[in-house]
């Protein structure tokens, strides 16, 4: 078991955070943004950044090459669909994608939007950790949390609307 700090400051103990979230035993802030046959998308529970989405596999696998062909296709489609929604609904111009296989929980990709303020922390990969910590430590105010929740709602609506005729 490991302790995880949520964006609201509370701590939870889980074996695998991804399993807890995709399996429904832990409800991420704002709920499920989108679900496919093999994947599950939610706002990152640790960092209050608008449109920061985690796309996690439902199956407990660790490495990219463990995905079946069906899962690979579903993954790429889901990733693209969320990316498009981030652009259309939140005006997000660029996104950084991260996935490291040596985490203690299972396959999940971070989709980290780039906002103007983030460039104060540099460009590219070295800026990401400081950006996330800045958000967690300095952006937990009521106003920003409300904006994050509004963004989740907009994305959820966009990603779950029926096909247009
Ligand atoms: Zn898992």
Rg, rounded, reads 15 Å
Q: Which class of secondary structure composition applies to the elements?
A: alpha+beta
What's the tally of helices? 4
Catalogue the ligands. Answer: zinc ion
Query: What does the overall shape look like?
Result: globular
CATH architecture identity: 2-Layer Sandwich
**CATH class value:** Alpha Beta
User: What's the CATH topology name?
Assistant: HIT family, subunit A
**pLDDT < 50 runs, ≥5 residues:** none
- The SSE string, one letter per element, is EEHEEEHEEHH
Q: Which strand order do you get reading across the main beta sheet?
A: 3-4-5-7-6
**Main sheet properties:** 5 strands, antiparallel
- The count of β-strands is 7
The average pLDDT is 91
Question: For the record, what is the CATH homologous superfamily label?
Answer: HIT-like
Beta-strand fraction estimate: 15-25%
If you had to describe this structure to a student in words, what would you say it looks like?
Helix content is 35%, strand content 19%. It has 165 residues and is of the alpha+beta class. It has four helices and seven strands. The longest helix is centred in the middle third of the chain and has 22 residues. It has one domain: HIT-like (HIT family, subunit A, 2-Layer Sandwich), CATH 3.30.428. The termini are far apart. Helix 2 crosses helix 4. The site of zinc ion has 6 residues, from helix 1.
């Amino acid at each position: 078991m490991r302790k995880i700090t949520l964006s609201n400051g509370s701590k939870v103990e889980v074996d695998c955070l991804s399993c807890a979230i995709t399996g429904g035993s832990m409800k991420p802030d704002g709920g499920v943004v989108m679900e496919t046959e093999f994947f599950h998308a939610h706002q990152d529970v640790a960092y209050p950044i608008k449109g920061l989405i985690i796309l996690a596999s439902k199956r407990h696998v660790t490495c990219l090459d463990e995905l079946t062909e069906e899962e690979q296709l579903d993954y790429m489609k889901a990733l693209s669909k969320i990316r498009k929604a981030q652009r259309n609904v939140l005006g997000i111009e660029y996104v950084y994608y991260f996935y490291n296989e040596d985490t203690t929980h299972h396959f999940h990709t971070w989709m980290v939007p780039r906002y103007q303020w983030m460039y104060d922390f540099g460009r590219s990969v070295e800026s990401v950790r400081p950006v996330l910590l800045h958000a967690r430590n300095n952006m937990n105010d009521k106003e920003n949390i409300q904006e994050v929740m509004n963004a989740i709602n907009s994305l959820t609506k966009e990603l779950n609307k029926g096909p247009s005729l």
